[in-house]
Every structure is written in structure tokens, then in C-alpha cells.
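Predict the 3D structure for this chain.
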Amino acid sequence: MTLNVLWLQSGGCGGCSMSLLCADTPHFPELLRNNGVQLLWHPALSLHGEHDLLDLLGACLNGSIRLDALCIEGALLRGPQRSGRFHVLAGTGLPMIDWVRKLSSVARHVLAIGSCAAWGGITASGSNPTDACGLQYEDEHRGGLLGTGFLAHAGLPVVNIAGCPTHPGWVIDTLMGLAAEALTLDDLDPLGRPRLFADQLVHHGCTRNEYYEYKASAGKPSDLGCTMENMGCKGTQAHADCNRRLWNGDGSCTRAGYACISCTEPGFQTPGHPFHLTPKLAGIPIGLPTDMPKAWFVALASLSKSATPRRVKTNSHSDHVALPPVSRKTGLR
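Done. Predicted structure below.
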């Protein structure tokens, strides 16, 4: 069965659409078609004008066109005073939140594309003057625009393809799974994120893992060392496969020298400290790996630092490999 997809943009920057257009394929529309995905409308990919879109929305609501997957990009703006008038869908006079509620009531699946649509994200940061929220969450709290108990017609809650922005592969693989009727409740994690990426940590596959093992930490952005101890990296806590499923087939935040800010997690936008600094208590990073008791981490870090090879320690504070591995015979004896 072909999966009919309607994609609307709400309160956000459009970054998830820009990321989607960087999918690792020579022909994006053909990739979707060959995998059973029919894009009814997308603000950056469709040639239809305003009146065509309004006719399409009406057809989805009256059932003459089957709406299989409603994809919402951007936070839902409920202000001012829950009227939704901060964001009115052009040509309709109706707030976007009203359209989203109506379309969600007839869709087989509802997908939040990006952390803004999932949790509120950057749009809901600070004092949140637009009263922005996610489709079914406000940060880590269930509720959002559609409410705690919302289930789409196929029986799933909102599928949260979180990220700022999302990886194009996460979106495409999720749509392909829905088209094949192969995505079930068991394939979502406790926050409604597809486990196809959420069962991994950014730490997995990070090229700085040798430095992490020895707690050989970077001191400035250009250093090769691990950025967890001093520079705010949350890759050991962030649920995403960014270092295994590379962006544009080539890179990730940590590979580019930037700390992971855990953008797939609720509340990442307001960590309570500068993104580029690691908060500490008595010299110990507060944000430890998700599965490691603090006492074990302290003991391991102390032992690791005392055993750090000179090569690793030197290179961790350099922007290039200053000391290469020693060349020697490696045969086992």
C-alpha cells in the first residue's frame, strides 16, 4: 500500500526540511516512490499553490483522499491566550493548531518531525512567549497540543522523530517502515522515538572514544581530545546514531569538533548552563554516562588518567596528530 504523506510546517526554522533535502540519494522523489511513499504536499518540494493545498486539505478531511501520515515540522504555537493566532495558515484565516487538530483526527499516523514538533524545542525556550509546545509533549511532560491519550487511527501515539535537525535517514526509514506496516508500538522508545535510531547513543562510533577511555580531555574547540569533561559534550547520554549513520555520508557534530548537545532529548534547549561548558560538582561532571554509577566513573577516570599513554595525552591538546602510534611488529606471541 502506498503511504500518503502530508507535510506541514509550523513554528520553526525549516531546518528539518533542509536536512531532509540532504538525503544521501541522487533522486529524492524517486527514493520515496520506490519505497511506497507518496508525498501529497511539502512546502519546499511541491509545485502546488495555495488553492491547490486548500483543496487537498479539504479532501483529506472529508475522506476523498486517504491521509496515512501527517508530518508536522516545527512547534505548535498556542498563543496568544491559547487562541493560536500567532500562526494562521495563509489563505484560511484559521490557526495552524486548529488545522493540525483536525487533520490529526483523520490521519492513520501522526509524526513530529524534529525536536520542536516533538517537545517544543528551541521555539519553546526562554520565557516561551508564543506558548509553543510539541504535538504530544511539552519538554518531557506528556500532553502538548493533542493531549496525553491521543492515538492516531492506526493505534500509535505521535511518532517523535526528534533532533535539531532530524537526520534525513531517520525520517525516510520511519516513513518506509510505516509504508510496509512494519512499525509497531514496540518499535518506539518510552518517549515515542523510533528505536531505529533511539536505541543508539551518539557516543557509539565517536572518533574521540580513545580519548574518552583515557579521560584525555580537550581544553579548547580545536583540540582532538574528548569534549565530555570540559566542553559540554553529552554524547554518552544522547539517544541517536549520529556517529554510525553519518550526516551527508561523512560527518557528525563531534567529528566536526563540536560537543553533542543532546538535541534529540526533551529540554535540550535549556540545559541550565552554557552549551560549550560541562557543569561539575566537586570537579566531577554532573552529566555522566546514562548507565554508569558516579562512584564507578570517578574510580575509572582516576585509573584511566594515570594510565594514559603519552601519545594520547599529547594529541588530546592538539589540533592534529602530533604523536602518531608507534610502529612495531604486532604479531601475537
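The mean pLDDT is 92.
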